[in-house]
Amino acid sequence: MLRRLLTSAMLLALLVASGLTPAIAQDEPLPLVKVVIMSGPEADGMKEVAAAYTEATGNPVEIVEQGRDTYLTLIPTQLLAGTDAFDLAFIQSTMVGELAAAGAILPLDPFLEQLSPEQMTDVDLDDILVPAVYEGQIYGLPTDISTLFLYYRTDLISEPPNTWDEVLELARQFSQAQNPDSPTPYGLAFDGVVGETLPETFYNFMWAFGGEIVDEEGNPAVDGPGAVAAGEYWKTLAEEELVPPEILSMGFGEVLAAIEADRLRWRSRPGMPCTRSSSTGRASTKT
Predict the structure, then answer these.
(1) Residues 8 and 102 in one domain
(2) Do residue 180 and residue 239 come from a single domain?
(3) 156 and 235 together in one domain
(4) Are 66 and 36 within 8 A, CB to CB?
(5) What pLDDT, in 10s, does the model give residues 94-122?
(6) Per the count of CB atoms within 10 A, which of 107, 179, 192, 252 is most buried?
(7) Beta strands per DSSP E along the chain
């Protein structure tokens, strides 16, 4: 069901306000649709989705790849400027509110409402865990969900930590600023690109410490004890030089390259399920 959903519906997501009209049911193929997406696994997966979509509908799709290092600043800027260089865009869910409020993307509801009963058998919104909704309208359908894992070097560590306290101690052990005999300059890294992956990564740390973005009444909660504790933890990582100084510009590719170059002992990749309680279950991925 998920594959059918992606092939028939995902290419509707994040329609740019560039002249496309809600005309789903057509006898003739639609004009070429250009989809911009960041290079890497996302683009590789979308190419397969696009090919399946074209085979099923006859509608041509061109996948336009952009480099990961500039994607999260370049594409939103182009959308807000009203670009006509592409028709659909792959963006992070946390950007939807800003872009929708600015009128840079169109809601999907008019398109979904025009689907035929036959098409609706392939587009079951109940199958979608978290659609991107702004002011009651759907602006995007997710292609995937990020789950944070802890990747560690098995040549240096026999067993991964169970708690964030243990993570901190091991980071100190494998950071040369704290341990000159460490075989690696830094003990820890994570996706920290400012603007998108940085808050995504921090939220997972914050939730592990018991913090929340908003409370049950919808009030800001980022000044709560859990959120503050997570912030203090990150402050320690920076002050003790346990993470690389360029951490705020390190994305997936940069962190992977640092591991391969022997600069890191491990990495945290965007909801490592470790908490400060040693009773918490451990989930790690060997590399």
Answers:
(1) yes
(2) yes
(3) yes
(4) yes
(5) 788 888 999 998 888 887 788 777 777 76
(6) 192
(7) 15-16, 33-38, 61-66, 88-89, 105-106, 132-134, 137-140, 149-152, 266-269, 285-286
